[in-house]
Structure to design on (273 residues):
């Protein structure tokens, strides 16, 4: 579903979420090094772990069962951070910060290293006019090992609850699948809800029938802590309002495209004018 036009269409899996040269850095020795990192280090890990989790959550597993071990929780936290930072929403957010702080950085460079040569001034100007320098900065920030580890650890220290739909319903995912929601206001605007706030809930669709909810240890007075890493069943009829709300929010906060296995699930969320 295209969120902007509200048109629903079918396409192959390989075409989903694809954009030419989104990670390409044309001035580097390997222009595709950023893309290669995701292809070699992230996507195999993600594919193996998601397959393992969906297998663990099959219909024969009882409600309340712990379905991931500690090291898998660590991997899943890492994957969620990488998913959060690699998409268009993150790129747009980084661009706003880049444009906001770049003038101050340039003035600081001039004051510290003055006088600058003509060549150095030209290079400094390129940071404004040449998109390569923004993308290179974005790559360095997005793949900063220490920061990724710190963010992943923060998520790991939350409670992970896996909701499994029992019945005829499914979860929607999107081109920005890791969704942060203010549990009080319902605000799901990307990068507006802090990770460490107790009111923030994170939702990540694992499959059409499986949804990961990540909750702060203090959420609901710590009432979810005993369910960490557990599988919780949702009755498709009794919990239809919750399922539809999560799907609507997923569509609302995505960059452009939301995805579902069934066309009817998306049709429920077309806004009538």
């Amino acid at each position: 579903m295209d969120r902007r036009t509200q048109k629903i269409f079918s396409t192959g899996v390989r075409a989903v979420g694809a954009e030419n040269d989104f990670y390409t850095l044309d001035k580097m020795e390997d222009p595709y090094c950023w893309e290669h990192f995701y292809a070699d280090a992230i996507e195999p890990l993600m594919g193996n772990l998601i397959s393992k989790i969906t297998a663990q959550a099959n219909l024969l597993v009882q409600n309340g069962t712990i379905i991931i071990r500690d090291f898998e929780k660590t991997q899943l936290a890492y994957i969620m951070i990488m998913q959060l930072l690699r998409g268009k929403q993150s790129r747009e957010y980084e661009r706003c910060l880049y444009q906001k702080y770049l003038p101050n950085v340039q003035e600081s460079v001039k004051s510290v290293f003055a006088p600058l040569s003509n060549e150095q001034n030209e290079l400094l100007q390129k940071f404004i006019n040449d998109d390569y320098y923004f993308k290179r900065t974005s790559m360095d920030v997005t793949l900063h090992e220490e920061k990724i580890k710190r963010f992943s650890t923060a998520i790991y220290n939350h409670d992970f609850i896996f909701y499994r739909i029992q019945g005829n319903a499914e979860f929607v995912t999107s081109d920005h699948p890791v969704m942060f929601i203010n549990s009080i206001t319902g605000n799901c605007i990307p990068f507006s809800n802090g990770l460490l706030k107790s009111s923030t809930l994170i939702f990540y669709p694992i499959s059409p029938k499986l949804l990961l909810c990540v909750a702060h240890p203090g959420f609901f007075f710590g009432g979810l802590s005993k369910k960490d890493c557990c599988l919780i069943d949702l009755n498709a009829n009794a919990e239809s309002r919750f399922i539809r709300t999560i799907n609507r929010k997923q569509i609302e906060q995505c960059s452009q495209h939301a995805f579902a296995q069934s066309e009817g699930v998306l049709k429920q969320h077309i806004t009538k004018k």
